[in-house]
Design brief:
Blueprint: H1 5-27, E1 39-41, E2 45-48, E3 54-62, E4 69-77, E5 90-95, E6 103-109, E7 120-128, E8 133-134, E9 138-144, E10 167-173, E11 186-187, E12 199-201, E13 206-209, E14 212-222, E15 225-229, E16 231-233, E17 239-240, E18 243-250, E19 257-265, H2 268-271, E20 278-284, E21 291-299, E22 305-306, E23 311-314, E24 325-331, E25 335-340, E26 343-349, E27 366-374, E28 390-402
Parallel strand pairs: 1-8, 2-9, 12-15
Antiparallel strand pairs: 1-3, 3-6, 4-5, 4-7, 7-9, 10-28, 11-16, 13-14, 14-15, 14-28, 16-27, 17-27, 18-24, 18-28, 19-20, 19-27, 20-21, 21-22, 21-23, 24-25, 25-26
């Protein structure tokens, strides 16, 4: 049966009305409501060591829970140490269904003492289930010491006198003022050093204040290096032959750190290393922070680099980051002796060593170097256990010579 033209037009008109009606209905569809997850917020906190024996960390819930939710936490040591500065804790916080805008608290015991320490920190790490938005996965807890800071550079630890009978003070740097004395020191400002080290040495990592010189090593990207630190030396400024040198320092710790107090032959520019000689007064591997070592380096009769096996000094308790110690060398025309806190532990006789062309570099002038390397052949590279930042603090450098 054939439809007339008029019937066809009427049929098309009805279809058009149905289409328009359907489109209008779609526009009026209301989308489902999206409910934002409740938020868990925790903030960094700073407090004084003596405020309370317990510190309260607030963990805040904002929003309404549809079911029981859990937040786990645990402390992680930084420069503040477990069992020495705070008691480690871990646990679970439970937020109940329909709970709205509620605070819970974490209790942490802070261990007080009566000695001055620098500002310290530890962290609290958090994990949560999918019912909440955890706004941060860790916070920093900073401890400010409430003990009286000692004056006249008398920071806790071993100290040596300003004079010895039969000796004169040849030179010293007591690190007065607010900046490094460039009449005494040259500072490095570059990377690409030796021994597969990873750091860029920057003058910005040296600070002087309150009678202390501080070298800071830290993760920081400069010139394709992932770490920065500081290195200084007295080449062409302060140099001497024979005497006693005392360096009072508090050392860094942790995997991949390599602090050093050492000396180099003043004639290095002309004869090169190792013929100029090197005296390592103190070196420390960050992963063994209770042990330091000393040795010398030179060119032997065969023209090769040589150093006698290093000898080590180990503390009976604690480590060299706990307080200041004095690293000393006594040097004359016969031998070089190494001491920690006036305890002799290494002695190298000049006659026990055979030098290139019988040219003993240890009968000539030497200059002083101080630095903190990161990574390298001596102690290995930093890893996930390394604590940042790290510092070496130096109270004084003193050189005495016999009357």
């Amino acid at each position: 049966m054939l439809l007339t033209v008029q019937a066809m037009n009427k049929f098309q008109f009805i279809l058009l009305l149905l289409f328009l009606f359907s489109a209008c209905k779609k526009k009026n569809v209301i989308p489902p409501t999206v409910v934002a997850k409740p938020k868990i917020e925790i903030s960094d906190i700073t407090f004084s060591e003596g405020d309370n024996n317990e510190t309260l960390i607030n963990v805040s819930l904002t929003g309404t829970l549809e079911a029981l939710s859990f937040v786990e936490y645990n402390t992680v040591a930084g420069t503040a140490k477990e069992g020495e500065d705070f008691e480690p804790v871990s646990g679970v916080l439970a937020f109940t269904k329909d709970e709205t805008s509620h605070n819970q608290k974490i209790f942490i015991e802070i261990l007080d003492d009566d000695k001055f320490e620098e500002e310290e920190f530890f962290e609290i790490h958090f994990t949560a289930d999918t019912l909440v938005n955890l706004m941060t996965d860790k916070i920093t807890v900073t401890i400010l010491d409430n003990d009286v800071q000692l004056t006249d550079n008398d920071f806790p630890g071993y100290a040596t006198p300003m004079e010895y009978e039969g000796w004169n003070l040849f030179w010293s740097d007591e690190f007065g003022g607010n900046e490094l004395d460039l009449n005494n020191w040259i500072q490095a400002d570059r990377g690409n050093w030796f021994n597969n080290e990873l750091q860029y040495y920057s003058p910005n990592n040296t600070e002087v204040g309150n009678g202390i010189m501080t070298i800071t090593a830290k993760p920081e990207i400069i010139d394709n290096h992932n770490y920065t630190s500081s290195r200084m030396w007295s080449h062409h400024k302060i140099f001497f032959k024979y005497g006693r040198i005392d360096i009072r320092a508090k050392l860094p710790y942790s995997q991949g750190l390599w602090p050093a107090l050492w000396m180099m032959g003043e004639n290095r520019d002309t004869v090169g290393w190792p013929q100029c000689g090197e005296i390592d007064i103190m070196e420390l591997r960050g992963n063994t922070p209770n042990t330091v070592s000393s040795t010398v380096h030179f060119k032997n009769q065969g023209g090769d680099h040589y150093n006698p096996p290093a000898k080590r000094y180990e503390l009976n308790s604690g480590d060299f980051s706990d307080e200041f110690h004095v690293f000393s060398m006594i040097w004359d025309e016969h031998k070089i002796e190494f001491l920690v806190d006036d305890n002799l532990y290494n002695s190298i006789s000049h006659t026990s060593i055979y030098y290139y062309n019988n040219d003993n570099p240890f009968l000539k002038n030497f200059y002083v170097l101080m630095n903190v390397a990161v990574g390298g052949n001596f102690g290995g590279d930093p890893d996930a256990t390394t604590v940042w930042p790290q510092t070496m603090k130096v109270d004084y450098v003193r050189v005495f010579q016999k009357n």
